[in-house]
Write a structure and sequence with these properties.
The protein contains two helices and 18 strands. The strands form three sheets. An eight-stranded antiparallel β-sheet has the order 13-12-11-18-17-16-15-14, with helices on one face. A six-stranded antiparallel β-sheet has the order 2-10-9-8-7-6, with no helix packed on it. Strands 1-3-4-5 form a four-stranded antiparallel β-sheet, with no helix packed on it. It is elongated and about 60 Å long. 14% of the residues lie in helices and 35% in strands. By secondary structure, it is mainly beta.
Length: 278
């Protein structure tokens, strides 16, 4: 009789232990988003209009720095077909991603995560395809878009001609830089007052000019210099000035990479973004 009671007590204890472990596992899965891939806004469902294969999409660098070779490896203009399933799956590059989510209350974008890369599809609220933004998770940096190929791009020479002129900062020295006026030439040359305090590019030092769009669909002119603008000892894509245009074709912001004033090293550079008025 005592043996039977002992066996019954042991069995009851074992059941309680199993139930306890099951409860702990359930709590852990809930805390981790159900074992998904970084759910930040609850389980999301793709709009039925998006279901199917989108075979004509391409990766477009636009005004971003492009893929970094780690989070993503797409090249500008590369075809990137995407298949979206009725189960809200997202197939791209031989991978099928599941468990989409929304972020920061933005229901217009539905997001899938692949390691350090997020694919954010919009507009999920209306079902009208706009683009798929690529975002590096580690620093929330925009890496371009997957979208339908654009029609013939804007004429950068015409854009430069229309935007040429002098611009003042709206809040002088508010960003910690010392120049207060920028002059843009129709050939892409740039000069700043006070002299030598901004990323000056002489006419003969303009390596190239290009036009594109940023994530907000603003037109952006990118001017690449032959000279070492940012003081890192090299010349290349870091030696660029990006001019964001307003709806009238005038420059409203200027962005460029400068050496951090206290470190002076390439890995401590920062982007200066200055708001301008003609």
């Amino acid at each position: 009789m005592e043996k039977a009671k002992s066996q019954t007590a042991w069995a009851g204890s074992r059941v309680k232990s199993v139930l306890f472990l099951s409860s702990v596992m359930a709590l852990l899965l809930t805390a981790c988003g159900g074992g998904g891939n970084g759910d930040e806004g609850g389980g999301a469902t793709v709009h039925p209009n998006f279901v199917g294969t989108h075979s004509t999409l391409t990766y477009q660098k636009l005004a971003s720095d492009g893929c970094d070779g780690a989070a993503c490896t797409y090249t500008d203009g590369q075809p990137v077909p995407v298949t979206i399933g009725a189960d809200s799956s997202f197939a791209v590059g031989g991978k099928t991603l599941t468990d989409p989510y929304t972020k920061n209350g933005n229901l217009a974008e539905i997001v899938w995560r692949d390691g350090n890369l997020e694919y954010a599809l919009s507009l999920n609220t209306t079902g009208v395809f706009n683009e798929i933004n690529l975002v590096r998770v580690s620093d929330n940096k925009w890496l371009g878009q997957i979208r339908e190929p654009a029609a013939a791009g804007p004429d950068v020479n015409a854009l430069l001609a229309a935007a040429a002129g002098s611009y003042n900062q709206t809040l002088p020295n508010s960003t910690g830089i010392s120049w207060h006026q920028m002059t843009l030439g129709a050939d892409g040359a740039l000069s700043f007052i006070a002299a030598g305090t901004g990323p000056d590019i002489a006419s003969g030092d303009v390596e190239s000019t290009a036009a594109g769009e940023d994530a907000e669909h603003n037109t952006v002119i990118t001017i690449t210099s032959k000279t070492d603008l940012n003081g890192d000892g090299t010349t290349g894509t870091n030696d660029q000035v990006k001019l964001v245009l307003d709806s009238d074709g005038k420059v409203k912001e200027v962005h460029y990479l400068e050496v951090h004033p206290t470190a002076g090293k390439p890995d401590n550079q920062r982007w200066s973004a200055v708001t301008l008025v003609p």
